[in-house]
Amino acid sequence: MEASKLMSLPADCSTRDVARVLGLAVRSVQLMVDRGELEAWKTPGGHRRIARASVERWLKRRQGAAGDARGHEMAARAPASIDDAEGDTASRRSPRDGRREASCGSPQRVLLIEDSVHFQNLVKLLMAHEFPQVELHVADDGIVGLAMAGELQPDVLIVDILLPGIDGATLISRLRSHPQFQRSRVIVVTSLDEAQRGSYAFVLAGVPVVHKPRLVQELPALLVESLSPAG
């Protein structure tokens, strides 16, 4: 983010000011306040005010988290020995093409970008029971999720709409703009009902959406379809 955009914020910001500078939905900023990620208080009229210094601290934490995520992924991919490096040569010949065919023995990957621990655990249980052969990776905010998506190039992304860092709609738009993600399937999970999702309709067009109360019933079938070789 350009420093000038951050400095354009007043010392005490509204949620709309912060959402504009961070590129988030106002509701996402409100959730960040509710979770204690941003320091805020209410005016006598009941309006939230957020300290600009709090936004600066939040950005530094998230930038550090994104760097850690990239570092962890690089460390996980690094061979433990020379023998491991030689054995892994084939998988490293063309890492940018994003193709890991099941016939070559490489596992498929699913990246879940979801800030709710409850739903993280629910998806983990579903994956372990229904898709034990598939690697599941988890990010709990949009910034880290975007960094991990670049490292993993997953077969499927499961994305919540209301995320800290970058909201799910913005994240999906950014992924669509990069050719390297054209092969990745996207599934949206959200607590928003159909009427509440109206402002995200353009981004969600053609994307399967699972209402969280129906996650257990609907997500497995969508994953079967998205992970199928024909897909």
Features of the shown structure:
Arc Repressor Mutant, subunit A, Rossmann fold, 2 domains, 8 strands, 14% strand
Q: What do these coordinates show?
A:
By secondary structure, the protein is α/β, with parallel strands linked by helices. It has 2 domains: 3-63, Orthogonal Bundle (Arc Repressor Mutant, subunit A); 105-227, 3-Layer(aba) Sandwich (Rossmann fold). Helix content is 47%, strand content 14%. The protein has helices spanning 3-7, 15-22, 26-34, 52-77, 82-87, 89-92, 117-130, 142-152, 168-176, 201-204, 215-227; strands at 12-13, 40-42, 48-51, 109-113, 135-139, 156-160, 185-190, 209-211. The strands form 2 sheets. A 5-stranded parallel beta sheet has the order 5-4-6-7-8, with helices on both faces. Helix 7 links the parallel strand 4 (109-113) and strand 5 (135-139). The longest helix is centred in the N-terminal third of the chain and has 26 residues, at 52-77. The two termini are 36 Å apart. Residues 75-104 have low confidence and may be disordered.
